[in-house]
Every structure is written in structure tokens, then in C-alpha cells.
Amino acid sequence: MTKFDPNKSYSIGVWDMTFYVVDENGNHVLNEQGEIAVFHAPNIDYSYMADGLDVDDLEENDDA
């Protein structure tokens, strides 16, 4: 697990954002393989999503 130095100041950023789509009946939109289709919006700035977060709010991914 990553340890943060209490004597340092940190900024938190957004690394990746994934979306899915549902229709008016709540059904997931599926891709050609029949799996839930996932999407990205590469031209959107998500930096505000981390506003107000502190490193103590984060849980490290163990699937990286």
C-alpha cells in the first residue's frame, strides 16, 4: 500500500473515467459481443471530480 508523507502536500487527479448507457427501460446497451458497452469521453475535463478529496479518502486499486 502506498504511504503518503505527512510533511508533503498532494494534489489528486482523475486518471480514467468510464461510462455505460441504459435505455428508457433500464437495459444496458450491449456491444456486438453481447457485453455491456463501455464508453469514454476524451474531450471532457473531469478534474473537478477530485475537488474536496484528500489522500485519506482514497483506496488504492490492487488490480493495477
Radius of gyration: 17 Å
Distance between the termini: 12 Å
Mean of residue pLDDT values: 93
Q: Give the proportion of residues in helices.
A: under 10%
Largest sheet: 2 strands, antiparallel
Uncertain stretches? none
Please give the order of strands in the largest beta sheet.
Answer: 1-2
Cα shape: elongated
- Overall SS class: little secondary structure
Order of helices and strands: EE
Q: Count of helical segments?
A: 0
Strand content: 5-15%
Q: Count every beta strand, where a strand is a DSSP E run of 2 or more residues.
A: 2
Observed structural traits:
64 residues, 2 strands, 0% helix
Give a summary of the structure in a few sentences.
The protein is mostly loops. The protein has a domain of 37 residues. Helix content is 0%, strand content 6%.
Describe this structure in words.
The chain has 64 residues and is mostly loops. It has a domain at 15-51. Helix content is 0%, strand content 6%. A two-stranded antiparallel sheet has the order 1-2.
Q: What topology emerges from the helices and strands here?
A:
Blueprint: E1 19-20, E2 38-39
Antiparallel strand pairs: 1-2
